[in-house]
Design goal:
mainly alpha, 10 helices
């Protein structure tokens, strides 16, 4: 129902424009919380990211660059936090609390296999998968992945992730009326 969805999007667009420079903080916090286990299920971080990054990033080139750097910083910090937590607690964390965060022994086995077989590419590609984004830095830390290598891949993955979602957000901000009008045909 485009009649219902378009006013909602227009309202979100108006609120984002009203926030002004606070959108940088919103982009940073969204990227930070998007990579946290459980939080990404409760808070639709990618929807927030797409709308903030698209609508505010489209206002100027400087705003676009600021949004990208805010998102990269939030993502890198979140991944680093989970990497060091994984180094400190290791796999015992999942044995104790795995059921509470949605990762039990089977999922842990698959994520470890992902890190073993894909290595650096796995860390980079996991940024685009919700469960991988939330848990792979922890797994890499618990497996003893080299710190300097992790930082390099963390920055590369966060940068690619931010740029891809900014571009998607910009596309959505530019063409949301057409997308809403015709998306029902695709569904």
């Amino acid at each position: 129902y485009p009649d219902i969805l378009l006013p909602v999007i227009e309202y979100i667009k108006a609120k984002i424009e009203l926030l002004g420079k606070w959108n940088y903080l919103l982009a940073f916090l969204s990227a930070l919380f998007e990579s946290l286990p459980i939080i990404w299920v409760i808070i639709p971080g990618q929807l927030i990211l797409l709308s903030v990054w698209g609508f505010y990033g489209a206002t100027s080139t400087l705003a676009l660059i600021g949004i990208i750097f805010s998102a990269i910083a939030g993502s890198v910090i979140s991944n680093a936090f989970w990497y060091y937590l994984g180094k400190y607690y290791g796999e015992d964390f999942f044995k104790r609390y795995g059921i509470w965060v949605g990762i039990e022994q089977t999922e842990l086995k698959y994520l470890k296999k992902w890190v073993d077989s894909w290595g650096p590419r796995g860390i980079i590609l996991s940024k685009f998968h919700p469960q991988g984004r939330a848990f792979l830095p922890f797994i890499a830390g618990s497996m003893g992945f080299v710190k300097t290598r992790f930082w390099v891949y963390n920055i590369i993955a966060s940068t690619l992730w931010a740029i891809v979602f900014v571009l998607i957000g910009l596309f959505f901000a530019e063409y949301y009326e057409v997308i809403v009008k015709y998306m029902w045909y695709g569904i």
